[in-house]
Amino acid sequence: MSDYYQLEPTPVWAQPKRSRWWFAGAVAALLCVAYLVFGDSTVASDLAEKASTTTKQIFGAGTSPQASPKITVILIWQERGNSSPAYTPYFFQSVEANPDVDLLLINVDKEEKGCTTFSNATNVQEVCMSVAEYHQLHVDFLCKRWQCTDEDRRNLLNELVKRGTEDPNNSFFRILRNGIFSKYINPATTIWGWCDADTFWGNFSSAFPWDIASDFDILAVSGQPAYSNQRLLFTRGHMAFFRNTPEVLEKMHEYPKFSSLSSFLMLPSTRKEAEESEFSHYIFAERNDFTFVTFEGMVNEYDATVFISEHGVFYSDVKKEDIVSDEIRQRLLGLVSASNGKPIRPTFSEEGVETETHLYLNGSHYEGALWFPEQYATYIETDWDDYANHQKAYFLRREALGPVTERMEQRSRYVLHDEDLSAEEALYKHWQGEKRKAWFKRLPQEGLKDGEVFVQYRDTEGEIWDAHGQVIFETGTD
Fold this sequence. Notes:
This protein has 478 residues and is of the alpha+beta class.
């Protein structure tokens, strides 16, 4: 074992910076005991007041522990080059702004120079390991099911090392991550997910569908806004979520290439975008016993303006040439902080309309662009008119072996207005193409300071505003 990586005697989730969770649980237990012993609420009330103060000190003002569901997101990180990408500080700031969602960062020290520490936040766990240790975790997990002999283990390890050079985005085993890295995951986790670092997390409190999340095996994030009558069903490589149970993991392990060692060695190599192509086709098309829901949440290279801050991720049709005064900037800042973590509930309202729909199992008639072979495309074709296609859409299978349905909810429930200005909240921003452009790489490497907002105009330039709407930084254009 390398000298820069040591496994603690207790699991990562139980280390000191997690101890506040256990302490809060002890406080709750103490309240129950007080009530039983004293027979009235006086002492318990007294303790509750003190506990309230203590809890605020532990979790921070305005933050409460998320009892259920509990989310852990797994990110595989490998240093590339001598400096981190421009988006790095912004990504970690966005994670830290969501204390009820855990990030498990698996930092693979490919160059054997030691791992950079990115965050000391209580919801970020960083595990540094060598490439050899990373591969060994995969061997241990896969061979536990495959009942490998010693020779099998050696053959598998050699194959993993060989195939690792063909997997630049760590996609080959994404659907098994919660099993491979299970010893590092908080056991309270009911939903696990993956993410990429070229994202900025929005406000999970208001933008994630907490009230329905526990009802589904798969929670797939779709583009926002989406207006087409044809909608691809797939798990995006930069963010997706799954029920964290042995049953769902077992179904993932039944994917043909993972069903046995001989299948893994003999079947064609996994595609580089497997989570969006072949794994997604397996989940949505080849099996009908996964329950799933797709929901809007990802803002990509939006046509107008995106606002990113500690308040979350918002987008607006307003264009740069329309923002001509401090007064307009201040009004926009008011809009993009208006939700303040307050969710629109229920996600599925009484006014929503849900009907059975048809699932297309390949892309031979899909009219949009595909970045993988059409045999792996799964999509829905709505029978909605143009008005309906501009509302919020959900596609779901509520029960194993049950029908696939399409659900429409009024977008007006979510749009924020200030006279002629409007904005809508999203779960995250993905810097798909921007991260490679010179203007984006000019972003301040210290990230955003308190009260600041990053404003991105299409995919061509950005500004940073202070809390008063003053422009304090401009990237310029390329």
